[in-house]
Amino acid sequence: MYWEKEIETISPEELKTLQQERLKLTLQRAAQTPFYRKLFAQAKIKPELIKTKEDLQFIPPTTKEDLRSGFPFGFLSVPLTEVVRLHSSSGTTGTPTVIYHTASDLARWSNQVARSLFTVGVRKNDIFQNMMSYGLFTGGLGMHYGAERLGAMTIPIGAGNSKRQIWFLKHFKSTVIHIIPSYALLLSNLIKSEGLDPKTDFNVNIILLGAEPHSEGTRKRVEQAFGAKAYNSYGLSEMNGPGVAFECGYQTGMHLWEDYYLVEIVNPKILTPCQPGELGEIILTTINREATPILRYRTKDLAFYYQEPCPCGRTHLRISRIQGRADDMFIFRGVNIFPNQIETVLMNIPEVGANYRIILSREDYRDIMRIEVEIKPELFAGELPKLERLRERITNELRAEILVTPQVVLVEPGTLPTQEGKAIRLIDKRKL
Ligand code: AMP
Ligand code: ZN
After folding, report:
1. Sheet hosting strand 407-411, strand order edge to edge
2. 322 pocket-lining for ligand 1 (C-beta < 6 Å)
3. Ligand number, closest to the Cα atom of 232
4. Residue 93 has pLDDT above 70, yes or no
5. pLDDT(50) > 60
6. Which domains does the chain have, with CATH numbers?
7. Measuring from atom 12 of ligand 1, which residue has the nearest CA?
8. Mean predicted lDDT score pLDDT of the chain
9. Ligand 1 atom with minimal separation from the 210 CA
């Protein structure tokens, strides 16, 4: 059983006590690391005086750049001999960041994931096909060990190779899949192109969508395609990986496990706390980890929190789906736009297919936004005026949302490039 009732429905008072005990230990561990030792000295912080979540404001936040600057051992708080694994996030823009885990860190992470999976109904008799990439990326191994801990038969198939995915889905009748949302849309189309129906020819009834921002419309499409429930799974490698926050059966926001993290949601510019419903940046402090304590990590992920208790009875903070990343936002002719706004519009238009991309360029000192949209194949067989009307409708709906007029180009399914990992939706050529 991974329904940890006492902890999942903990009262606010008890949670506070637990968090304070764990914060104390975390600060002691942090003081062992070169990075925080220096930070505490420079900022004249006495860690023993930081006692509550409110006191955290006296500690400057830690950024991704700080993690990079600490490469390789700046955040390590135990002897290297105690470390049994490291994960590292992509170093596409320079030095990678590294997170170390002791054996008990890994055990706790597996519990965290097992609890999350149990929350959405995964059980021992499930067959779990893990379509996330294995390796340094945490989506594969992180979820894998949680599913095994729960006792589900786990298929470590990894990302991509759609034909093999389909073969496994067919032969093992996998009941749960863990998949990147953009890939879920593509895979369902591929399945159909093989003459199969993802709804009736397979046995998938739970889908875990994670690793990239996606809209409610995308979730609905995935659910309809597979005839299954799709749940939002949020995590980031700096905070372990999957299992940081997870939806419950009610699908109204994700519970962020507060026995593992202290959560702040703040105005990304001035870092003041947000009110319920107000979009802000998530800042997380690990309080249940030994090897790599991180204090007030700026995730750059934007969400809001709900004040009303969740009908499921879990008391851990409920946050909205991630609406975008603070650094995803682009400015186009003076307007601030998040790619997710565009996705939300597109995925609510039934004629739109599985893939799209946004290309920004500059011609004669003027910014151009081109949005290439795959549309359902049958529409290309129709008359041209009809197609043009569709293009106009998509353009108008986008303009209503983003307040500028993009150039919309309709393309056939399969035209746009796809990625095995997280989808690349935005190409900003203005910076090249
Ligand atoms: P990584 O550290 O490579 O695993 O990437 C973590 C980042 O992926 C997070 O900071 C988010 O920006 C994004 N991400 C992960 N899960 C989700 C999710 N369920 N919804 C939206 N974004 C997500
Ligand atoms: Zn709930």
Report:
1. 407-411, 366-375, 352-363, 426-428
2. yes
3. 1
4. no
5. yes
6. 1-325 (3.40.50.12780), 330-431 (3.30.300.30)
7. 301
8. 95
9. 19
What's the CA gap between 314 and 6, in Å, rounded?
Answer: 10
299 CA closest ligand 1 atom index: 10
Query: d(Cα 9, Cα 163) in Å, to the nearest integer?
Result: 42
β-strands 176-179, 297-303: how paired?
unpaired
Residue nearest to atom 8 of ligand 1 (CA): 211
Rounded Cα–Cα distance for residues 413 and 196 (Å): 18
Using CA positions, which residue lies closest to atom 10 of ligand 1? Answer: 236
Q: What is the pLDDT of residue 358?
A: 97
Which pLDDT score, from 0 to 100, does residue 2 have?
A: 76
Q: What letters, b where the CB count within 10 A reaches 16 and e where it falls short, cover 297-336? A: bbbbbbbbbeeeebebebbbbbbbbbbbbbebebebeeee
| Residue 90 confidence (pLDDT) | 67
Q: Which of 242, 224, 87, 126 shows the shortest CA–CA distance to 180?
A: 242
Backbone φ and ψ of 211, nearest 5°: 85, -20
Q: Which two tokens stand for residue 147?
A: 């599913």
Show the CA angle centred on residue 17, arms to residues 12 and 23, nearest 5°.
Answer: 115
> Is 239:230 a contact under the CB 8 Å cutoff?
no
pLDDT for the residue 384: 84
Counting ligand 1 atoms within 8 A of each CB, the residue from 236, 256, 300, 325 with the most, and so the one to mutate, is 236
Residue nearest to atom 20 of ligand 1 (CA): 213
Residues 229/238, Cβ–Cβ less than 8 Å: no
